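Postdoc handover notes: sequence design on the structure in folder B. Input tokens:
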């Protein structure tokens, strides 16, 4: 319920006339739209769940043959008054989902077949509905494919088969997603709304960096509220530093430093993002334009960590302390240049 007040603070602090909230379908739910976001007068962009997409398709709001020659179509529906719906279909995403589903189906069948063989074997067979059901439940929980199988469990029998119609119905939606927004087209075009929604990948990257890859914000070994806030603040500050370091060190990383060219190579907002020729060259050769090895952010930090500053004394006078710094490697030297740092190099 504090969302509207926080957005108002952001507007006032940074002099913004309009703020558009972008969130995935798990964050901006219909209930949250009705109870918090719309009453606060906020603009928003989100997406529909697969069940809602199925309802639109079954209700005739759009037809799949729309995407024979295109990958995006803007529609309206009386179920979503005052909203624009951008129906998108990504063939590459459809192919990946179909392959993943088939792999999971095959894996589920393989594990269920093992249970069936245990029930049918002559020596020490698996017996009892409860015992068989527990084993079957473990398999279904592991692969998340229960909705696609018809199961028959008896005290001394077990059989299964695929639900062909259910699988075909799900496959029809492969690669489809629907972006929804209350913004009028004169404020944001269809393709811009889709691009804004897909930019959530940057937020996901930030959360992944905070939670697991780099900073590991959890677990939090604090209980007092001020200490928890301080811990989170320090992690956010560290990510802020990391964000700017990545931007400056991009020529040494696998990151794309020519995003304008990459954006021009992308023929549609729905299509997969392209990498520029310079980024592809770094991936292919493993070398930067300067001939230095391309690294990940973590490995580059490890390389920079070997740069040393040593304080020492002479055998003749223990009170005389002098400082030595190691000579930077070519990679370290280039990184310092990109970061705007001039280390002292004493041989």
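Designed sequence:
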């Amino acid at each position: 319920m504090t969302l509207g007040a926080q957005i108002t603070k952001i507007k006032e602090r940074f002099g913004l006339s309009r703020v558009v909230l972008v969130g995935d379908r798990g964050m901006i739910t219909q209930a949250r739209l009705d109870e918090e976001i719309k009453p606060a007068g906020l603009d928003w962009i989100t997406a529909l769940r697969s069940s809602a997409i199925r309802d639109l398709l079954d209700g005739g709001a759009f037809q799949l043959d729309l995407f024979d020659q295109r990958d995006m179509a803007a529609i309206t529906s009386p179920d979503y008054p005052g909203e624009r719906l951008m129906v998108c279909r990504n063939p590459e995403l459809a192919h990946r989902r179909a392959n993943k589903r088939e792999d999971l189906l095959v894996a589920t069948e393989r594990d269920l077949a093992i249970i069936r063989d245990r029930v049918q074997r002559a020596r020490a067979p698996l017996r009892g509905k409860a015992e068989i059901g527990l084993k079957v439940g473990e398999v279904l929980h592991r692969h998340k494919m229960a909705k696609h199988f018809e199961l028959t469990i008896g005290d001394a029998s077990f059989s299964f088969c695929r639900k062909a119609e259910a699988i075909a119905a799900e496959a029809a939606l492969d690669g489809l997603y629907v972006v929804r927004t209350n913004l009028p087209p004169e404020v944001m075009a269809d393709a811009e709304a889709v691009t804004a929604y897909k930019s959530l990948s940057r937020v996901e990257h930030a959360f992944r960096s905070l939670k697991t890859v780099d900073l590991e914000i959890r677990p939090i070994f604090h209980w007092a509220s001020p200490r928890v806030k301080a811990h989170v603040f320090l992690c956010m500050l560290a990510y802020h530093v990391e964000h700017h370091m990545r931007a400056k060190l991009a020529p040494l990383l696998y990151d794309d430093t020519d995003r304008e060219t990459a954006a021009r190579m992308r023929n549609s907002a729905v299509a997969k993002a392209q990498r520029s020729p310079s980024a592809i060259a770094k991936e292919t050769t493993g070398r930067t334009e300067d001939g230095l090895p391309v690294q990940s952010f973590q490995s580059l930090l490890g390389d920079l960590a070997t740069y040393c500053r040593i304080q020492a004394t002479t055998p003749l006078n223990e009170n005389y302390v002098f400082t030595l710094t190691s000579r930077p490697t070519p990679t370290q030297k280039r990184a310092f240049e990109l970061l705007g740092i001039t280390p002292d190099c004493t041989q």
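Context for whoever picks this up: The chain has four domains: 3-86+175-185, 93-170, 206-295, 301-339. Don't rerun without checking with the PI first.
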